[in-house]
Each structure stands twice: as structure tokens, then as C-alpha cells.
Amino acid sequence: MFLTIVNPFGVMYNPASVLHTLERMYADGASAFAVPDMAVLSLGTNHVYILNETGEIVDNCEKRPQRLFTEKILSIEECTDYLTQCVNLLQQVNPDVRIIFTVSPIRYAKYGFHESQLSKATLLMAIHTLLSSFNCQLSTVNCQLLYFPSYEIVLDELRDYRFYAADMLHPSEQAVDYIYERFADTFFSEKTRRYVEEYRPIKQALNHRPFNPDSEEYRKFIDQTKEKLEAFKARYQR
After folding, report:
1. Where are the alpha helices (DSSP H) in 26-172?
2. In what order do the strands lie in the sheet with 69-73?
3. What pLDDT shows up at residue 51?
4. Whose CA is closest to 139, among 128, 125, 129, 126?
5. Distance, CA of 181 to CA of 146 (rounded, Å)
6. What is the per-residue pLDDT across 215-235, written as a single tens digit (0 to 9) for each?
7. Fewer CB atoms inside 10 A, N or C side of the chain?
């Protein structure tokens, strides 16, 4: 089974906020969160917002007036430093943790597309600098620090606006599925692939929306699906 935790503090887009999240999760070495065998850190931007009153980077503006904040653009060096602190913290929790970095392909139209590209480039350079400092190459899968090229897959492999959603900023469902398949091919073991393939039809059945949910036919369908689910759990919980 996949024992996973999605960031309980919400989505964080920049390296500073990712670090703040990890610091809150593992403050003082005492946390209710599981020790990870693998952590995936997905970065979206190097833009941060500083609360004028305190001079500190905030992770969520909470819809407060814009005049209370000053926007700042983190440099490559600053991003690298924040990410290095992330690595150090995670390795304190588990020295054997594997950390996967990736850059989101979602474009930031509010910056302008050129500035959005500069933001992504800064993140890419920061990750490259970090991996190099740990003697990890981008293509090395057996290193503790890894890079998965979701950004490059969308820009260089898919390379077509049909792989974007209607807003032309977010990847389409087809693009997301393609990125997932590439991720699975890279990191999933053969056993994990079998697990996913066996569970896929069960999940589809559980998510099925019937035309007549009160029918006897649908009741039998649900009972059969539950039986398959219990058998599936029994096989993989041994």
C-alpha cells in the first residue's frame, strides 16, 4: 500500500515556504507525522511575499490586503540555501530518505510569460546546484537526491497547446496522466506496478456513478466490487 502524507498545511510554491512547512512538521524532533522513506518536493515559483510588519516571508497571505506585503524574487543562491536546509532537515528525520525534486509546468501568467520562464529557470538552476553539491547527477536514479523532469516533459516532449487545459496555463488531464506514467516508469518497482494495475479497475468501479443507484443490478455490482476490494487488501496486507 502507499502510505502517503500530502502537505497538511496546504500547497506551498516556493523553496522558503517548503522549508517552513517541513520545520513545522518536524519541530523539535517531535511530530505526529510519519518518518518518510521518500519525499517529493515540487516547486512552482521563486516569488515570495514578505509581511511588512515583521519582515518575514509568509506562506499564505490569507487574502489580506496587498499593501501589507512586499513581493520579493529569490535568487538562485537563496533558493539553493532553502532547499539545502530542506534536505538537511529531512535527513535528520531519516538519514536514508530519498528526496525527489521537480518543477511544476504550470505557468504564472500574472508575472508575464517571460518572467514566469525566468522564475522556473531560477528553480532549475537551484536544484542543479544542490544536486551537484551532493555529487548527484540529474539522470542518476540510485542517488538519495533526485530530479524528475515534469517541467521538461510538458515543454519538450508534449510541446503542444492541446496538452494544456482551457486556461492555457495548467496541463490537461492527458498531460497529467502522461507525466504520471513517466514517473511510474522511473520510480515504481515491478511489484508496485502490479499493485497499481490490479487496483485500477477496482477504483474505477468504486467511482462509477450509476444511472439508477437503487436498482438490484447496481447493488450486486457494489457487493461484487467490495468483495474484490477485500480480496485485494488481503493479498497486499500480508
Report:
1. 76-93, 113-133, 150-152
2. 56-58, 47-51, 69-73
3. 95
4. 128
5. 17
6. 888 888 888 898 988 888 888
7. C
pLDDT digits (tens, 9 = 90+) for 8-35: 788 899 999 999 999 998 886 655 567 8
Cell of 98: 530519498
Residue with cell 518572467: 115
Contacts of 119 (CB under 8 A, 6+ apart): 45, 46, 47, 73, 108, 111
pLDDT tens column, 122-144: 999 999 999 999 888 655 556 89
Handedness of CA 4, 37, 31, 61 (dihedral sign): negative
Confidence of residue 168 (pLDDT cuts 50, 70, 90): confident
What spatial distance separates the first Cα and last Cα of the chain, rounded to whole Å? 11
What is the C-alpha separation between 192 and 98, in angstroms, rounded? 17
